[in-house]
Design brief:
The protein has five helices and seven strands. It is of the alpha+beta class. The protein has a three-stranded antiparallel β-sheet. A two-stranded antiparallel ribbon has the order 1-7. A two-stranded antiparallel sheet has the order 3-4.
Length: 146
């Protein structure tokens, strides 16, 4: 019988709150001629906090409440959604990057991530932030009785 190690199901709270480097090895949809194929992205990684980072969770909840007030029909324009997602990722999630042709700087990030056209970049950052602090499940082989 195989048993799961309980500790391997726990989150690394230090990484969730302080950040961790998460590589983006490939991404689907970057080649318009082959939209269903993954494009390799060697060297690309983001230093991000988790989407479970408490300050981010609170700020996101506040932003969603404000959106509901401003757009009661739940139809916020794409540029408004992009700006909010970008601001939240700039303020709470993204701490650095490697593998892009420009150096990371908070001012540059604040401009890029709020722009509607940079949705792929935002998606990558949120994908990475969703992985921070997670561990690979570990198993233990239990002794069997005769």
């Amino acid at each position: 019988m195989t048993i799961i190690k309980l500790a391997s199901l726990s989150a690394d709270l230090s990484k969730e709150r302080e950040g961790d480097w998460i590589p983006v090895k490939e991404w689907h949809g970057l080649d318009p001629e082959k939209p269903f194929e993954a494009t390799p992205l060697p060297g690309l990684s983001f230093l991000v906090r988790s989407t479970l980072y408490p300050d981010y969770v609170t700020a996101r909840q506040d932003a969603l409440e404000k959106l509901k007030q401003d757009y009661p029909d739940d139809k916020a324009p794409a540029d408004v959604q992009a700006r909010i997602e970008g601001q939240l990722s700039v303020e709470y999630l993204l701490l650095g990057w490697k593998g892009l042709d420009v150096e990371y700087s908070p001012d540059l990030v604040a401009t890029i991530l709020v722009a509607e056209e940079h949705r792929v970049m935002r998606q990558m950052i949120f994908w990475c932030a969703g992985r921070v602090g997670k561990k690979k499940v570990e198993f233990v082989k239990a002794a069997t009785k005769n």
